[in-house]
UniProtKB/TrEMBL annotation:
CDD domains assigned to the protein according to its UniProt record, in alphabetical order: UDM1_RNF168
Native source species: Babesia ovata
The keyword rRNA-binding is assigned to this record: no
Coiled-coil annotated residue ranges, if any: 773-937, 973-1063
SUPFAM superfamilies linked: Tropomyosin
Descriptive protein name: M repeat containing protein, putative
Keywords: Coiled coil
PANTHER family assigned to the protein according to its UniProt record, in alphabetical order: CARD DOMAIN-CONTAINING PROTEIN, MYOSIN HEAVY CHAIN, NON-MUSCLE
Domain of life the protein comes from: Eukaryota
Keyword Electron transport annotated: no
Length: 1084
């Protein structure tokens, strides 16, 4: 909805001139199902297998996955993969990595279907065409029919160690380095940006097809290459590190080393073979990287069987680090910073291949793969970060290293004030690679699970910077047709709404215009609102669904459409009615089921934000009453037809029929009925919406814990139930979750605005009686099992208590015997403690008098230091504001700094004295601990006396007297302890004396005398410091007078600036008047 967009063609398909609106030649559907898309370019609209040339694969009858036949070149058997290196033949793009990266294109590959994507690799939905679907089917079948069996056989022999060692000749003879195989790998790596090619549906009656998939084939090829690199090493001496180093030497021989090295284990290998092997390896690595980034169903279970390959892959990445750090070769670290995307990957130099290894490692870690050599990876990542952080190049490689480091060491995110997440946030707007941006947002999503980082981000996040990164930058990407780059940023924005509560109100208030932004940014914010609404209603695919979810959250916060002009707002309302089917629109794309449901959820949010009157006013000439809306789903409206709709149909149809039969607001409708009618309308537009509603009903019926709550589950609980664990499912990364969430939000909104009878009907529809009874039975069985386990636990607990009771009885008898001895010993200890405390009291009194004098002197000194600090801060702030004309004041400030540095040395001497006082405090703490132990022993004796009072009446009187004496002594000890703690805070210098009081009075007196002499010496030094401070104060007074003169000069300059600003403001008003007059005279 850009401001330069004309709305005259609104009734003929929406905002057709907007860059985000798909044209008839631009199929941007967000799903892979076939559609009625028609191309207008030179490629004919034919079936996927009809565009196969004579030299391409022709599927044969009766073939199984894993067969060794290679159907290429018209059905003939494949020739050996060893290239016949004819010096007179035409150069091929499959010679080496650099040639492929430089010359490969859609024309060279012979695939004109990829031209549109080649011109703009940031819109993967350009690959959603029947021709591209045909390419996916053809090349997947070629790999699985012709090459999977060979690669699997070689991989099995390499793992089992049977027969001879695997060599590169075996790899070439298996045709894995042939041009046909490399073409299929490269083509699928392009198509995997949109299509799910990791799995192939098994053929009926073909038992071997269940294990054949592209993942397994790629991993088999990598395993074969690693095994061939390790050939010649005895099996007992092989390990992943040695294999990785030999393979790293092979890569150097095939890519960046033009002259052989005598220490190279592959110096005798033909370099053209090494180049072809390296190209095969890098293409398979790139295909695996794209599959890991785009396939959401690739989990740990699928990848766990290939741990050996992953360990070697990690060691190869560490070999790059070792060569760059230890050997000092920084060629791999000086690649292009933040490269842009291309249809064909840039794999022609060492730096990009280095980055590709880290990208694959990040993808494997994001899928839950566990590395046994994770410590080696952590060391390699840290070494790489240390080198790159001190360099001005290699920013892209450093970001990959940070992403891997976040996944390897999530507990170290808080280091250096969360520096790594902050850097990743900063580079989100600078990244131009879709795979790298997805990795960055994935790493930040992992950081968002750390409560410490969430609190840090929520407290320090700048609202204007957040709006610029996630809103304005996304709009810029959308206008530049970089939708694939905008999707990860929008996913991160949706996640920030959940983890950082301040983000949603800040973004919503900014978009609504309620914040005090600078006036010149108002047009930019208005364009952002229009762009977001355009994408949420007009675009197709994942970006439309994600944008609809974001705008729904924002509209529920506040109505941001009010910031638009009245003309734009009214036309947006009319278009919103058209996209949900209330108004016929010709030429507009329909979209898939999830996209339609997300638009209905957006309409529901618009209604809740107060847009119901505008919608009803725009619909008054189309559907005036409720029965007319029901007619959108049923051609004839009668009581019988409404009963039929109430009994048969999806949940939206049943609720609309219920409203019609109940006569609820027969002369109008409420918000819930309007949204339900819109849901019925999109069901008529796309039958897949009905399947989505049935899936939601069955999914909610399985959530038994929310059936008896009396209300519907919240969105957070619903997402957690979908994920099956404590983490919420992410609707921005799974379109199925997004569709179910949109339906749930619509149903929950209708439920909240309905009356009790309709709420009961909604509960009955979502929680059928049969399923509820079954769930209750399962719940009862679960409670029975828990009760039985609890009963067994109680029995075991009773047995333990009986044993403890018998043991306590034995202890009780022994305590009775020891009672008399303890009482006598305690009486003696109490007498000795009284004498020691009396002596300690006298010594403490004398020490307190001396400490009070020292405390007063310290307070006076601190006050003077505080005044000096305030004066220094004031002078520094005034001097920072002075302009270039205050050079004389600057020279005074430098002299002042030199004087302050001398004062700092004296203050450091005072700090060292304070540290000596703190050592005394630690000794006093040890005394407090001993007194506490004595208290604890007294308390234990009292508890024993109280427990035996009822059985020994004769001893009761003695125990009572002892209890009174002990209580008095305990209070005295407690009072003495408080006094000791108070004195310890006020006189740290005398705590050594207090510690020695418990040993002997004479030693304490000697220590007090020694401390007195030290205090006198300190007092004399403090007096000298006071004199020096007075001298400094005089100098400060002189400096203040000079600064006052500078301030007067600054005041005069400020008055001149005010006069200049007033003249500029008057000139700006004149220019504004001229500009408005010019705008009024324009003919458009």
């Amino acid at each position: 909805m850009g401001r330069d967009v004309g709305y005259s063609n609104l009734d003929r398909g929406g905002f057709a001139s907007l860059t985000t609106q798909p044209s008839a030649n631009d199929n941007m559907y967000g799903y892979t199902a076939r559609n009625d898309y028609l191309r207008n370019d030179s490629v004919k609209n034919v079936d996927g297998k009809a565009d196969i040339r004579g030299g391409d694969y022709r599927p044969g009858a009766g073939l199984t996955y894993g067969s060794t036949l290679n159907y290429v070149n018209g059905g003939e058997a494949a020739k050996s993969g060893s290239v016949a290196f004819d010096p007179y033949r035409k150069p091929s793009i499959w010679e080496d990595c650099a040639t492929f990266s430089r010359e490969a294109s859609s024309d060279v590959l012979g695939r004109h279907e990829l031209q549109k994507f080649e011109h703009n690799p940031y819109r993967s939905r350009y690959l959603n065409t029947p021709e591209c679907e045909g390419l996916v089917t053809k090349h997947c079948q070629r790999l699985l029919h012709s090459y999977y069996g060979r690669a699997d056989a070689l991989s099995t022999s390499a793992v089992s160690g049977v027969s001879k060692s695997l060599t590169f000749d075996d790899v070439c003879e298996s045709a894995l380095t042939s041009s046909d195989h490399l073409t299929s790998i490269a083509t699928l790596a392009i198509l995997a940006r949109y299509h799910r090619i990791g799995y192939l549906l098994p053929q009926v009656g073909d038992p071997g097809s269940y294990t054949a998939n592209i993942y397994a084939h790629v991993l088999n090829v990598l395993r074969i290459i690693y095994a061939a690199s390790a050939a010649g090493v005895e099996a007992g001496n092989r390990n992943n590190v040695d294999t990785a180093r030999r393979f790293f030497a092979l890569l150097g021989r095939g890519i960046w080393q033009t002259t052989p090295d005598t220490t190279d284990p592959f110096a005798s290998l033909d370099r053209r073979v090494a180049q072809r092997i390296s190209l095969l390896y890098v293409l398979c690595l790139h295909l695996l990287d794209v599959l890991l980034a785009s396939d959401c169903e690739c989990m740990e279970e699928l990848l766990a069987a290939d741990g050996d390959v992953y360990e070697t892959l990690g060691c190869v990445a560490c070999c790059f680090v070792e060569h760059a750090v230890r050997h000092g070769d920084r060629t791999a670290l000086s690649g292009n910073d933040l490269p842009e995307d291309r249809m064909v990957p840039n794999i022609g130099d060492r730096g990009t291949i280095f980055s590709k290894h880290w990208s694959v490692l990040n993808g494997l870690l994001s899928r839950g793969v566990k590395f046994t050599n994770s410590e080696l990876l952590v060391k390699g990542v840290k070494a790489l970060c240390n080198v790159l952080e001190s360099s001005n190049t290699g920013r892209s490689l450093l970001l990959w290293a940070y992403c891997v480091y976040v996944r390897l060491c999530p507990a170290e995110l808080a280091q250096n004030n969360h520096s790594i997440p902050r850097i990743l946030f900063e580079y989100m707007t600078k990244c131009r690679s879709v795979l790298q941006l997805q990795a960055i947002t994935g790493a930040l999503s992992l950081c968002m699970r750390d409560p410490g980082f969430v609190r840090y981000a929520d407290e320090r996040m700048n609202p204007q910077k957040t709006f610029a990164i996630f809103v304005l930058h996304s709009c810029n990407l959308i206008h530049n047709k970089m939708d694939d780059l905008a999707v990860p940023i929008l996913q991160m924005l949706h996640q920030l709404f959940d983890v950082c509560p301040k983000t949603l109100p800040d973004v919503a208030n900014t978009m609504s215009g309620t914040t005090a932004l600078i006036e010149r940014y108002s047009d930019t914010v208005g364009n952002a609102v229009e762009t977001f609404l355009n994408v949420a209603t007009l675009s197709l695919g994942p970006i439309q669904v994600i944008m609809a979810l974001i705008m729904r959250r924002i509209l529920l916060r506040c109505d941001v459409t009010k910031s638009l002009s009245s003309d734009l707002r009214s036309k947006f309302v009319k278009h919103l009615i058209a996209v949900v089917g209330f108004r016929k629109s010709t030429g507009a794309a329909v979209g898939d089921a999830i996209g339609l449901v997300s638009k209905v959820a957006l309409m529901d949010a618009f209604v809740q934000s107060g847009g119901m009157p505008e919608l009803m006013a725009a619909m008054k000439d189309v559907n005036a009453k409720q029965l007319r809306l029901v007619a959108l789903h049923s051609s004839s409206v009668s009581c019988d037809s409404l009963h039929k709709m109430l009994c048969v149909g999806d949940i939206a149809t049943k609720l609309v029929a219920y409203d019609a039969l109940a006569g609820y607001r027969a002369d109008g409708m409420d918000a819930g009925t309007l949204v339900l009618c819109a849901l019925c309308s999109v069901v008529k537009m796309s039958p897949d919406v009905s399947s989505l509603l049935r899936e939601y009903a069955s999914t909610y019926a399985g959530m038994s814990e929310y059936h008896g709550t009396g209300s519907l589950a919240s969105e957070g609980k619903f997402l957690r139930a979908l994920s099956g664990d404590s983490n919420m499912a992410d609707p921005t990364r799974s379109m199925r979750v997004a569709g179910l969430l949109c339906v749930h939000s619509i149903v929950a909104s209708v439920y909240m605005s309905s009356e009790p009878p309709k709420q009961t009907l909604i509960h009955a529809l979502l929680c059928p009686e049969g399923s509820t009874r079954q769930q209750h039975q399962e719940l009862v069985e679960k409670y029975k099992a828990q009760l039985a386990s609890h009963r067994r636990e109680v029995q075991r607990s009773h047995a333990r208590l009986d044993a403890q009771a018998r043991e306590l009885q034995q202890h009780k008898e022994s305590a009775t015997k020891q009672l008399e001895q303890l009482r006598e010993e305690y009486a003696g200890k109490v007498d000795r403690s009284k004498a020691e405390l009396a002596a300690a009291q006298s010594q403490l009194t004398a020490a307190s008098l001396q400490s009070q004098q020292l405390d007063r002197e310290c307070v006076r000194l601190r006050a003077q230091v505080s005044d000096l600090d305030q004066a220094l801060r004031k002078i520094s702030s005034e001097q920072a504001q002075a302009n270039d004309q205050l050079r004389e004041a600057a020279s005074h400030r430098e002299r002042l700094k030199n004087e302050v540095s001398g004062l700092q040395g004296q203050l450091e001497q005072r700090d060292r004295t304070i540290e000596q006082l703190r050592t005394v405090e630690t000794d006093n703490g040890r005394l407090n601990q001993e007194v506490g132990e004595l208290n604890a022993q007294v308390e234990r004796v009292y508890r024993m006396l109280i427990s035996l009072m009822s059985k020994h009446r004769q001893v009761e009187a003695d125990l009572a007297r002892s209890k009174e004496d002990a209580a008095q002594n305990s209070r005295q000890l407690h009072e003495r302890q408080l006094q000791v703690e108070d004195l310890s805070n006020r006189c740290r210098n005398h705590e050594n004396t207090i510690n020695t009081l418990r040993v002997a009075k004479e030693g304490t007196e000697g220590e007090v005398h020694r401390l007195g002499r030290e205090l006198q010496a300190l007092e004399s030094r403090l007096g000298k410091s006071t004199e020096e401070l007075s001298v400094l104060q005089g100098r400060y007074a002189q400096t203040s007078q000079a600064l006052q003169a500078c301030e007067e000069q600054n005041r005069r300059l400020a008055e001149q600036l005010d006069r200049c600003e007033m003249q500029l403001r008057q000139r700006g008003e004149q220019l504004s008047t001229i500009y408005s007059t010019f705008q009024d005279k324009k003919p458009y």
